[in-house]
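Entry 12.
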Amino acid sequence: MKKLLTVGCLLLSLACSAQQKPKKGWIQLFNGKDLKNWDIKIRGHKLNDNFGNTFRVENGILQVRYDQYKEWGELYGHMFYRKNFSAYLLIAEYRFVGEQVNGGPAWALRNNGLMLHGQSAASMGLNQDFPISLENQLLGGNGKDPRSTANLCTPGTNVVMNGKLITEHCITSTSKTYDGEQWVRVGALVLGDSVIKHIVFNDTVIVYNKPQVGGGNVTGADPALLKEGRLLTEGTISIQSESAPTDFRKIEVFDLSPYMKDPKKLDAILHQLQEETRTK
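Predicted 3D structure (tokens):
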């Protein structure tokens, strides 16, 4: 377990040093040009009805916007990458911009999320608000209170931390507060159901394991998907629209699944990545 927890820092360092030219093995979920390979599901709207042009790309930035909304109306939305992943490192760079849409809830101020091990967009109910998933919750400072980022929220799920089943909906991370419109780099190291960690820049800010279906905080989901205690070993990655305008300039994954059954191969790829990092 200790070795696995060091993997994230190693790979995150690689991601930090590879801003301009992606290295071999990284999958660019956001290609910098369009929404290719993503599905959109907004509450009350059919699959891939991008109501109000909520998700868009402008000047190489993936934007979440609400300028075509008259008011919020609880139109929670998610944009899902079409491929499932099981073991990987996810890196994203985001910032919050502008003002929250009229009628947005107070808790959703400067709030977005990276949803991990989630259900598919196609399996979402028409009026479902959140996918069954694990949320790496992204928060921006409000100028008054501490507001950590890369927290854990659990729509339709529970996790284990330090050997104890956690049924609270949101667990605060140890990250500092990021105010204003600064770019923030977050990561998630996901190794099936064995360990998941959230990372902010080079710091691990929360760790948990045995993610499983359970708990509440999801409405409109197919009951067949809510089998209590079912371990989550893989799933989709999605980003949210929760009423806060948000920019993403990078969303990328390093797929670790080919190496998980062979410790020697895993060690070899980690050493290779480490050498590449040192030579930059």
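Annotation: The first helix runs from residue 2 to 17. The radius of gyration is 18 Å.
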